[in-house]
Amino acid sequence: MVRWGFTVDLERCVGCMGCVIACKAENGTPPSIHWMKVVEQEEGEFPYAKRTFTPLRCNHCSDPACAKACPTGAIVKRPDGIVVIDQDVCIGTMACMSACPYYVPYRWDGEEGYYGDEKVPYEVEKYSQFKKGTAQKCHFCYHRIDEGRPPACVEACPADALNYGDLEDPESRVNELLRQKKHIRPREELGTNPGLFYLTGKGGGTVGGGK
Amino acid sequence: MSKGPTTNNFILELRSQRHWDWKVAFYLYGAGTSAGLVFLELVLRRWAIIDEPTALSGMAVGLVLALVSLAFLFSHLGPSARWRFPYVFRKPRTSWVARGAIIVTVLVLLRIVILLPSVPGFTGLPWGEETNAGALLRMAAMLFAAAFMAYSGLVLSSWNSIAFWNTPLLPILYIAYSFLAGLAALPLVVVAFYGGAKLVGLASVLEPALLVLLAANGLLLLIYVWGMATATMAARESVRRLLRGQCRLSFWVGVVGVGLVLPFLAVALAMRGDLGAELTAAAWLAAAGGAIQVGGFLLRDSFLRVGVYGYPL
Known about the structure:
The structure holds 2 protein chains of 2 kinds.
Chain A: E1 4-9, H1 18-27, E2 37-43, E3 50-56, H2 65-69, E4 75-77, E5 83-85, H3 95-99, E6 106-108, H4 121-127, E7 134-136, H5 142-145, H6 152-156, E8 162-166, H7 173-180, E9 181-184, E10 196-202
Parallel strand pairs in A: 1-10
Antiparallel strand pairs in A: 1-8, 2-3, 4-5, 6-7, 9-10
Chain B: H1 22-46, H2 52-76, H3 96-115, H4 132-157, H5 169-194, H6 196-229, H7 233-243, H8 248-272, H9 278-305
Helix pairs in contact in B: 1-2, 1-4, 1-5, 1-9, 2-3, 2-5, 3-4, 4-5, 5-6, 5-9, 6-8, 6-9, 8-9
């Protein structure tokens, strides 16, 4: 059984925001919704100061807190591990938004577009796929995955910082990277079993030892 | 201060949740208080401390409060999407929100059924107070009221995304506050329906009970905040925002001052007879009841507003 996973190489990310734009272009998300974010951080002080970039997105957890909290069953995990929201069932309780430790889901209440109240034809076309008052989040570009293509963010990344693959397949690209580099999973201690790994340096295995 | 490549100062603000706002706070307060009121007036009626009309008045006020709270909750749902609200009952196996929706709906229906025999035109219905069916319905209402009081805290404490809520003490605190606000609502009900003279007769029972509940809630709140002040970084940040940050006025003036200290003083002085004649003391008791309601709402609102996520990594 396939379980799609994702790796983010923190050493390779240069903060170009290509993934953010690619996600916006692919999915046409409204201004207030960001399925892909890149957090910029400053570390250290002059003359050793540096800027680091951390892409944040839905972790497509094996045990998703959002799905547990949702009273309607709108958030479901596909057999391949991708967590998606059924907009026809969501009623906008925002329980998923409070329950997700990564504050990933958004609710779109039909606010204005990028250029004010009047939407351009692109926005009219793209926003028609979002139902007003429902939760929204990254769906791993499942429409592309189902066609055998990579998610838009992965395809757009110029630094090869983002990768995806089948976590159950030992020969997949993500498993190869996990063997090569030390990695962490975001807030793993909460028991959500995220499908996203941050690669932090050479050596393989989890940061601080372990498998 | 040491400098060098090993000094890492991550700049990433701890974010507070903004999704569950004052409307949800009002729902948690209103429906919780309504459950507390129903539970206590059924107990007081069973012990023959209050008469049947007073008990039914309390039941009716509790019902209205629950319906108003549900209206606030409904307006909190997504625009357009909210009309699919019956879906909220679909996942009680995993979701506390669904469980709460079921509990509050059953409780509302039970109260309507219990109240029906007292409505002109339905007086012959066979589940009045003296009947077995009536006793069974009242027992069920007590059970669901207790369940809702617990739910109002469990729904928040079940999520480990926000450390300030993620403690078994939260349901205990919310149960205690539901009892306090429920009992404090009773003088208001009596004054509104029957005038101050009837409250004078109840004061000897209500005043000591209110004093005990006020003291217990104050102590629980202190333990809660103290415990969180020594917990994880996100929980400590929540405590900072509550005591010294954006919610400090709401907490110190509203929750502590208006909601606990002033009512405690008013009830204690009324008990000692320092607040004048019986009717004046009863008026103070009703005023204290109103102040406790303000504190009860602001507690829920402040707790929601200072809910801070941990770092996402």
